[in-house]
Design brief:
The complex is a heterodimer of chains A (152) and B (224). By secondary structure, chain A is of the alpha+beta class. Chain A has two domains: 35 residues; 110 residues, Immunoglobulin-like. Helix content of chain A is 22%, strand content 42%. Chain A is built from two helices and ten strands; from the N terminus they run H-E-E-E-E-E-H-E-E-E-E-E. In chain A, the strands form two sheets. In chain A, strands 3, 4, 7, 8, 9 and 10 form a six-stranded antiparallel sheet that branches. Chain A has a four-stranded antiparallel sheet with strand order 1-2-6-5, with no helix packed on it. Chain A is elongated, with a radius of gyration of 23 Å. The N and C termini of chain A lie far apart (82 Å). Chain B is an all-alpha fold and 224 residues long. Chain B has one domain. The relative contact order of chain B is 0.15. The chains are: A alpha+beta (152), B mainly alpha (224). Chains A and B meet through helix 1 of A and helix 1 and helix 2 of B.
């Protein structure tokens, strides 16, 4: 067997570079596909639940499906299709039908944390990912089941 | 001044030895990228899946050319087919009987799993795997460590690593890799190894429940 020339080293280095680029490109492609940075939204505490809005800037006419988790537990899912003219007026959306409301009536007294996520399908529905909308919402439940922001 | 026979691009022997290990690493990494990265990111794109495989294949072919290895050297030959089959006969039959016995113990029947059409292409797939494993990795391992237990163990570890995270397959391929690598070092014949590989794989797939083998899935697909 012959001792190889330095060309083999060049080929090995070249192959490593191509593979690194491939893995990097796939990582970026997957991130953009699975967790696209196109969702905008916000959630807030109301007396009887959590409400807010969400828009997918990549598909501004689409009604985004949202999921509510309270204290890390799944509570409910629904489409964000309620009227929010203020969102349209502020220029966040192309139409006003991007609002959502989750009624919360079964929570125990005391402090809780809600998180609202946009549900995103990729790979033709094979993969589903959740993206947090806005910040986690801290609130407390007072006597009578009324929701309040903490320290109010 | 260099002598007439010396080539300024030729590597010193120590570097050539390290180069052989690098080649093994490079081919192994390509397989791991295909199994773990490409299949997890773009499972439905066969073109992208083929990229790391083609890169590895290209490297192997180029390396053979660089080192002056012929098709016959690598093990695509028939003159030692019978001799290799003789070496493989007992371990293959033992593995087949053991697998059937385990399947019978679990199901009280022989070959309970259904025959699948994809088994027809198994001999070709087995030949390709044996080429990469022994025709390339084993030969490079011998360049680095010489013939014997160290190079045989390296081949088996690489073969097992490529079957993770499927625990049963990783164990089975470790033992199979040891036997095939040892036989290849005595009689380099890839056709006989592929025959043994095919028999063992089909027996495994037909005898053991798919849930135990997770349909022979490896890499990221194991979790899917």
């Amino acid at each position: 067997m012959r001792t190889p020339s330095t060309t083999l080293i060049h080929v090995l280095v070249g192959k490593s570079i191509v593979e690194t680029l491939l893995v990097g490109a796939l990582a970026v492609f997957t991130f953009i596909t699975m967790l696209p940075p196109f969702f905008h939204g916000w959630g807030e505490v109301r007396d009887t639940g959590i409400s807010g809005w969400v828009v997918n800037n990549a598909a501004p006419w689409e009604r985004v499906e949202v999921q509510l988790f309270v204290d890390g537990e799944f509570v409910a899912a629904r489409a964000a299709n309620e009227s929010r003219p203020d969102v349209l007026a502020a220029g966040w959306s192309r139409d006003e039908w991007h609002g959502y409301t989750f009624a919360l009536t079964q929570l125990s007294l005391g402090s809780h944390e809600a998180r609202v996520y946009a549900l995103h399908d990729s790979a033709g529905g094979l993969r589903k990912t959740l993206q947090l909308l806005g910040d986690p919402i801290r609130f407390s439940v007072a006597q009578g089941g009324k929701l309040k922001l903490p320290n109010r | 001044m260099l002598a007439e026979s010396e080539n300024p691009t030729q590597l010193p022997p120590a570097t050539a030895k390290a180069l052989a290990l690098w080649e093994i690493l490079s081919v192994t990494v390509s397989c791991l990228i295909a199994e773990w990265v490409v299949l997890s990111f773009v499972a439905r794109s066969k073109v992208v899946t083929a990229i790391p495989i083609l890169l590895a294949l290209g490297l192997m072919l180029f390396s053979h050319r660089e080192r002056g290895e012929t098709v016959r050297d690598v093990g695509f030959r028939v003159d030692n087919f019978v001799a290799t089959c003789r070496l493989l006969f007992l371990p293959t039959i033992a593995a087949v009987l053991l697998t059937i016995a385990v399947g019978w113990y679990m199901h009280h029947s022989i070959f309970p799993a259904p025959f699948r059409l994809r088994f027809i292409s198994l001999p070709l797939w087995a030949l390709f795997q044996q080429y990469a494993l022994n025709g390339f990795i084993n030969r490079r391992a011998q360049l680095a460590f010489g013939k014997g237990s160290t190079s045989v163990a390296l081949v088996a570890v690489v073969f097992s690593l490529l079957h993770l995270p499927n625990p049963l397959l990783a164990i089975v391929t470790m033992f199979a890799g040891l036997i095939w690598a040892a036989v290849y070092q005595r009689q380099p014949n890839l056709f006989a190894l592929a025959l043994s590989h095919t028999l063992a794989s089909i027996t495994l797939a037909l005898s053991l429940p798919p849930s135990l083998l997770n349909n022979l899935r490896v890499g990221f697909k194991y979790f899917g």
